[in-house]
Predict the 3D structure of the following.
Amino acid sequence: MVTPLRARDELDVAGAERLIEHIVNGGVSGLFILGTTGEGPSLSYRLRRELITLACRQVRGRVPVLVGITDTAFVESLNLARHAADAGADALVLAPPYYLPPGQPEMQEYVEHLAAELPLPLFLYNMPGLTKVQYEMECLRRAMDIPRIVGLKDSSNNMTYFKEALALLQHRPDWTLLVGPEERLAETVLAGGHGGVNGGANLFPKLYVQLYQAARAGDLPRTELLHAQVMQISQSLYRIGRYSSSIIKGIKCALACQGICDDFMAEPFHRFRAEERARVESCLPELKAGVDKLVANHHPAPAAA
């Protein structure tokens, strides 16, 4: 979930409430806040705590709430985890510390030490493009020996890595393996993964829910149709702007155009200027029409046993 903001350190409270209702009513299986799309590491600890409290209150137990606790400071990750537990969250999500890159032995100890003190189940979050390191297979294998660690979100966009992680599930069949890049959602579910945590679901939650359901049921023709629509979103909306932040800017701008929430960005980033916003406004009606046509009144086939 994106983090709706009104100013540098001010949450868009009404927008966050509308956004949560929009996403949950779209049929999602859970809500992940304070991740990459949520600009988590760019937000003050006060604002992060405010969002955690708001999200848990607004969701009211309808779906699990997963909270990102990634930080460069061990103690601050632990503080956020404790606040999340007190607020009623269901699980935590942790990417590697992202300033001074740890070696794999250091990473393993870090995960073990933190997990021992966490009050909630933990998902590891593999995001080497931003953290400079990843959870290597031996680190994942050792993490599977810790009951409190329950799964992995892989945003490496590397299918070799994903399939190697998938092979490790023989050691922990109860682990959940999720994918980040939405362009990989269909492929990973068909390969045996358990779902995705996709930024585009802020805008069109029903599209991603139905894509997951179609892939899970082995309905290849429908999977291909829905995947093509996901790719259209990726190739149009996400390519407005010149920098890596453009995906988040595009999602936030599209949400603002639909009246759901403000599109203010945390420093050092800023919302799209007038030229880019006009391009979002131009492509959004076609995207929305395409999604609406696909998802309207569709009843997916039962999932394969």
Q: What stands out?
A: The longest strand covers residues 149-154. Confidence is low (pLDDT under 50) at residues 301-305. The radius of gyration is 19 Å.
